[in-house]
Amino acid sequence: MVAAEVLTLEAAITGAVAAGTIYLLAATGEVLTERSGILNLGLEGIMLMGAAASFIFTLSFGHLAGIVASMVVGALMALLLVFFVVTLRLNQVVTGLALTMFGTGLSGFIGAPEVRRSIVKMLNPSVPEEIVLLNQAPRLPDAPIPVLKDLPIVGKAFFSHNLIVYASLIFAVLLWVLLFRTKWGLSIRSVGENPAMADALGVNVYRIRYLSTMIGGALGGLSGAYLFLGYQPFWVEQITRGRGFIALALVILAAWSPLRAILVAYLFGGIEAFQYRVPLLGLGAQTPQFVLMLPYAVTILTLVILSFSKVRRRIGAPAALGLPYSREE
Amino acid sequence: MPLKLKIHNYYIVFEKRYETGILYKVLVTIIAVIASFIIAGLIFLMLGFSPLEIYKMIINTFTSVGLMHETLLRSTPIILAALGLSIAFKMNFWNIGAEGQLYMGAFAATGVVLLHVYYGMISPDLLLLVMLLASFIAGSAWCLFPAFLKTRLGANEIITTLMMNYIAILFVNYLIFGPWRDPQGYGFPFSVNFPPYARPSLPFMSVGTLMLTWSLVTASLVFSMLKYTIPGFEIRVVGQNLEAAKYAGMNISSTIMLGSLLSGGLSGIAGMVTVTTLIGRLTPDVSPGYGYMAIIVAYLAGLNPLLIIPAGILFGGLLTAGDAMQYALSMPKTGAQILQALIFLFTLLGEFVKRYGVTVVRSGGKDGRS
């Protein structure tokens, strides 16, 4: 009976949107960051810190504080990255990895029950101990949109989620407008394509890279908060399980467009939601590991397909992606 | 225009340096490590742990002979994987997959032992040698696949090698929870215990010393390969100046494939070392992230194979100390990870200081070097 319900098309799309939002937020932010020429390999660590921050602040002051904290923490982590790679011109790959390792360690540390308890006690002493020690936070409530939620199939699939899901769609559309329909967007893209030229035309390369990376980081942090509060509200170390890195691959698949990122993110969300349905089909119950490999394998496959020259000619990475810029050279 | 940071009446000016001696580099690295200890101490203090206790435990790890043995055992897989990574990073092949390659090496070494234990294949005298070969091949295969995708199709190796990590770990988990589980193991996810002759030992030295010797030999081999052989030269040129390599008619694809073969193979051997010396069987948690620590160690050593030895021993020691902190201070085990990541970040800051000389200038004009 349960199986029949979760195997409908409607349930499949609902699951894809719910899981896809994790990828969408992270990938949208990363599209902005990469459009300005910065590769943020610290995304995985940023998402983990966002999740941990949302956990601690939700316990202390409620959901809103948790969400805001995750974005602030994400932006601060991104600030660290951008200081290293823009101001100090250090290698973006290595710095990003270092940031991911830092986020992995610190999020695991502050999320661990004993440390979490002392932090929450410091922030808000009135929170009862037994709630803090549970490895859970209250789930973000769903906020179905009236009228729209009653549409056939798409109603439940798209309009019966929590607020972050709708926000992620709005962010993606807004970012597309920003990048491709405004003067600012032109500046951001020119900084990512040819910073020397942009600089000569009076665009502040450093400021744009700082802002783009920090906004990208805030969205990465929010992605972590959504993952924990909205998707899987029980805490485990390394809760993201590589989704930050998958999001980096999705940016390539989306050809650095926030609108295509929506499609791509829901596609991968679908794969992730599918994982949890496989056992219900009576498959892979003995070998869950192979089912869990799916997103990673599909990511590799995607990169392979994207690498064929015919496909590659149609999509272009920002020309200055990953390269440090300095006026003296 | 050199970079300037203004603090009160002083400018800190960073100017590009073109030559730096090895002593200067080592000094900067040591300062970076000390700085990361201080910052980590502050973070731990803020989160309610005494930094002094933590420092005491870390120092204790390096001064006690008993713990030194454990440290050497734990540093060996890190050192071997870092040696492999130094080859890959030298040619700008971003192999982030040492962790997965290590798991595959552990898988292959265990597979050979199981062939012996269950089917009586391979004589005990040859067992370790076959395990060594198998783990090298498995590790290198796990690195050659992304290298192939990179050289033939241009697929980004950072992401593919990372994804391969997750796949390798899940694969090993499948084996241990499934067909390779010890039938007499009361259902625990372990393989059978390895027989004594499947675990390296020599009558006249401890396993720790043996492993240190093994690391030293491997480091010297990698160092000589990179410095004195033609493939080593090609690997360095491909990394430093791709255009020059093309112009000189080097076969870049095959250089990258060869470098990846060695890089993955060494991580594979690291996996064999882990299961044969530290654990003695295959378990789901073969590695506490040796492959990721190896990335930090390779950078801490400035990709110099000989300096990887002390850097690796430092990290082995931090792991040992991390265990002690977990028991004595009931500190989450991720504490050691924070310290490691900070060392990474400060090493990168050190890179910057090495590349750019630092001068402090008074905004009035008079300058004083620091």
Write up what this structure looks like:
The complex is a heterodimer of chains A (about 325) and B (about 375). Chain A is an all-alpha fold and about 325 residues long. Helices cover about 70% and strands about 0% of the residues of chain A. Chain A is built from 17 helices and no strands. The mean pLDDT of chain A is about 90. Chain B has a domain at about 70-305. Chain B contains 13 helices and four strands. In chain B, α5 packs antiparallel against α6 and α5 packs antiparallel against α10 (about 250-280). Chain B is globular and about 80 Å long. The interface between A and B is large, with 53 and 49 residues.
Q: What topology does this entry show?
A:
The complex is a heterodimer of chains A (329) and B (370).
Chain A: H1 2-6, H2 9-35, H3 43-61, H4 63-87, H5 92-111, H6 113-123, H7 129-133, H8 154-159, H9 163-181, H10 183-193, H11 195-200, H12 205-231, H13 243-253, H14 258-277, H15 288-292, H16 294-307, H17 309-314
Helix pairs in contact in A: 2-9, 2-12, 2-13, 2-14, 3-4, 3-5, 3-6, 3-12, 3-13, 4-5, 4-12, 9-10, 9-14, 13-14, 13-16
Chain B: E1 3-7, E2 10-16, H1 22-46, H2 51-63, H3 65-90, H4 98-119, H5 124-153, H6 157-177, H7 207-228, H8 230-240, H9 242-247, H10 252-279, H11 290-300, H12 305-328, H13 334-355, E3 356-362, E4 367-369
Antiparallel strand pairs in B: 1-2, 2-3, 3-4
Helix pairs in contact in B: 1-2, 1-13, 2-3, 2-12, 3-7, 3-8, 3-10, 3-11, 3-12, 4-5, 4-6, 4-10, 4-11, 5-6, 5-10, 7-8, 7-12, 8-10, 11-12, 11-13, 12-13
